[in-house]
């Protein structure tokens, strides 16, 4: 017996970014989702009905008056497993926040019992206007996931926040929200900071001291937090991965740069998860020109100095209500070393995992034990890094104090 395909309503607002949503639709249908496209009437000025119908395999309408016996203005929302709106224009966000129902899409939003995700796209001034920000907060307060837009080139010569995130990354948000189901935006209203990747400590203009971290686990943590409603700051050290939709990405190189970025973002964060592999040492001096090989003699020793312990610093300077999570990559005596590190660092949780050849670094899977300062131990069997990310956020959410009423 085959299981039912997940039903997705893909709402399309009237923005130039509608053309990018064709790629999002293709990803959804090719991965086994049953997608009904519901555009606004003006959205069809950007991408026509035949395109949406051909890509989805379903008829497309923006009107409540088409196929009236099937009551589409009620049934679409009632039957959906997810409603995803992209691009969500300023006008569409306003109508959704105020409960207007003047077309098929806004009717669908009012009848949906499932998770709802909005992916805004508009000019920077529109996104930053107090009216739009208030509408976004209203929608989030009702449990909707409103993905922060990306920064970049907009229409014309304008550049700034308001760009629709990459369709592949929006697909990942949709996939994560579908996996968790309704009522699980448990990080809504929270600001979380995640570090990812591996720092590089320069020796000269060519060489550096680094490590094998790919950033995959940190990016999984960021994506999962976005899907659970959080505002995410991702401090990324030398990561060659697309920016997760909805996360503000701060690129860094060295341990000192990562420290400065994390401490700045942590000042008003509810939780900080230090998933980056930070170099313990850096060269004591930097050579302005490439170190040359000298025939007949070995290389000069490179003197090292210790980098700041960022996790311990976070533990010392934290606010009382802040949740701090560290990662411990160990090669032997994994749990013993992890327990000792947890005691030293002052964090609430420590994710301990074994690393080495074909373990953790650069792989899509991971296994870990999450140690708690309260003496708890949560074993996470080997599986997708997103599964470990969800366990970490489950444990973080359980330790967060209730959010203050808005």
Automatic annotation (TrEMBL):
Zinc-finger listed as a keyword: no
Origin species: Actinomadura litoris
Swiss-Prot/TrEMBL keywords: Decarboxylase, Flavoprotein, FMN, Ligase, Lyase, Magnesium, Metal-binding, Multifunctional enzyme
Protein name (record): Coenzyme A biosynthesis bifunctional protein CoaBC
Top-level lineage group: Bacteria
Lineage: Bacteria, Bacillati, Actinomycetota, Actinomycetes, Streptosporangiales
Annotated coiled-coil segments of the chain: none
EC number annotated for this UniProt entry: 4.1.1.36, 6.3.2.5
InterPro entries the record matches: CoaB-like_sf (IPR035929), CoaBC (IPR005252), DNA/pantothenate-metab_flavo_C (IPR007085), Flavin_trans-like (IPR036551), Flavoprotein (IPR003382)
GO cellular component: phosphopantothenoylcysteine decarboxylase complex
Domain Flavoprotein, first and last residues per copy: 7-166
């Amino acid at each position: 017996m085959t299981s039912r395909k997940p039903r997705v309503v893909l709402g399309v607002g009237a923005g130039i970014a509608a053309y990018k949503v064709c790629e999002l639709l293709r990803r959804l249908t090719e991965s086994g989702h049953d997608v009904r496209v519901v555009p606004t009437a003006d959205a069809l000025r950007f991408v026509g009905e035949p395109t949406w119908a051909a890509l989805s395999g379903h008829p497309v309408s923006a009107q409540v008056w088409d196929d009236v016996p099937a009551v589409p203005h009620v049934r679409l929302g009632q039957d959906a497993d997810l409603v995803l709106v992209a691009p969500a224009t300023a006008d569409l966000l306003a109508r959704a926040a105020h409960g207007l129902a003047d077309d098929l899409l806004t009717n669908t939003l009012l009848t949906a019992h499932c998770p709802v995700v909005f992916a805004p796209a508009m000019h920077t001034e529109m996104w930053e206007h107090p009216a739009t920000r208030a509408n976004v907060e209203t929608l989030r307060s009702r449990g909707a996931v409103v993905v922060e837009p990306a920064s970049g080139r907009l229409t014309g010569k304008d550049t700034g926040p308001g760009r629709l995130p990459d369709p592949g990354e929006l697909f990942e948000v949709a996939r994560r929200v579908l996996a968790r189901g309704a009522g699980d935006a448990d990080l809504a209203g929270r600001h979380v900071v995640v570090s990812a990747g591996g720092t590089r400590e320069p020796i000269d203009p060519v060489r550096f001291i680094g490590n094998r971290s790919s950033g995959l686990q940190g990016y999984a943590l960021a994506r999962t937090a976005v899907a659970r409603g959080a505002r995410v700051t991702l401090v990324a050290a030398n990561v060659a991965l697309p920016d997760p939709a909805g996360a503000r990405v701060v690129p860094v190189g060295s341990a000192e740069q990562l420290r400065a970025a994390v401490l700045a973002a942590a000042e008003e964060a509810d939780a900080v998860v230090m998933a980056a592999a930070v170099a313990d040492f850096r060269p004591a001096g930097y050579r302005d020109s490439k170190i040359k090989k000298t025939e007949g003699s070995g290389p000069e020793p490179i003197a090292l100095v210790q980098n700041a312990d960022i996790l311990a610093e976070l533990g010392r300077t934290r606010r009382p209500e802040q949740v701090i999570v560290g990662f411990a990559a160990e090669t032997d005596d994994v749990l013993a070393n992890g327990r000792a590190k947890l005691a030293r660092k002052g964090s609430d949780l420590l994710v301990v995992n074994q690393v080495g050849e074909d373990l953790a670094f650069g792989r899509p899977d991971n296994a870990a034990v999450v140690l708690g300062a309260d003496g708890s131990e949560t074993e996470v069997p080997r599986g997708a890094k997103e599964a470990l990310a969800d366990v970490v956020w489950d444990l973080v959410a359980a330790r967060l104090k209730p959010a203050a009423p808005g």
